[in-house]
Amino acid sequence: MLKDRIDFSLIDKYYSTDNIINGRLIKKFFRDLINNVVEQSETYYKDYEKILGKDHGDTLPFCYNEIINYSQFAVSLNQITKIHLSEFPFRKHHKNNIEEEYDTIRKLDFWCAVKEGARGKAINYFIELKTSYFCVDSSKGTLTTTAKQRLDSLIGQVTDMKKIKPPWDGDDNVYMGIMTFHGYKSKTKNEKGYEDLYSPAYLLDAVKTNIDGRKKPQLLYSYIELPEKLQNQWSWQENDICKFVSFVGIIL
């Protein structure tokens, strides 16, 4: 049974509040959202035993994959605003070589609206979620190939939505990707220097390095050091232990 509150830390090392419209409000939105995700996961964990009559085990919901995490984020968004939808479609207009127009449907995981912004307008948040893994022992502190691919995919989807610029006059738009990383370490490897690389702070630097600087990303970074009871042991790699979970908010 989970007894103690799980705390999370927020790092804004690569976030400049004054260089982005609604900078302070966006930071508060991200902090509130992640706080709600953590609380929702804790509530799920604690109520599981009450309702089903058995111990849930050693895994919090945000330690699962992104599809399972959708429900956690939906409930968490609902605590901030009742105006939200998932997989909302938007049309992007193109012209081909013979000048005929056609449409491409693009979708993001979540759209929500919060009132009001610094300029007195409603703020639309367009949010895409991805999940990957951070493994020091296989990559010596850099992102793995799979993690880079998922990060690139996240950036690509958010960039496409930003290019579409939904024509909602009078509203401020925020284009945000949230990348969840499960940070794990192999108990069988303990090479010199790995302990320094295996850290949430190092992961943030690795993410920053792998985003094209020309996109001028603003990064908000939240991480949770898991209690020993909840340091999940992956069933397919019995020596790999998930010791922290990080949420990287990428605003383009």
Describe the 3D structure:
It is a single chain. The chain is of the alpha+beta class and 252 residues long. The protein has one domain (9-251). It contains six helices and seven strands, in the order βααβββααβααββ. It has helices spanning 23-52, 66-78, 136-139, 145-164, 194-197, 200-209, and strands spanning 9-11, 84-95, 101-114, 123-135, 172-186, 218-225, 240-251. It has a seven-stranded mixed β-sheet, sandwiched between helices. Strand 3 (101-114) and strand 4 (123-135) form a beta hairpin. The longest helix is centred in the N-terminal third of the chain and has 30 residues, at 23-52.
Can you lay out the helices and strands and say which pair or pack?
Elements lengths: L8 E3 L11 H30 L13 H13 L5 E12 L5 E14 L8 E13 H4 L5 H20 L7 E15 L7 H4 L2 H10 L8 E8 L14 E12 L1
Parallel strand pairs: 4-5
Antiparallel strand pairs: 1-6, 2-3, 3-4, 5-7, 6-7
Helix pairs in contact: 1-2
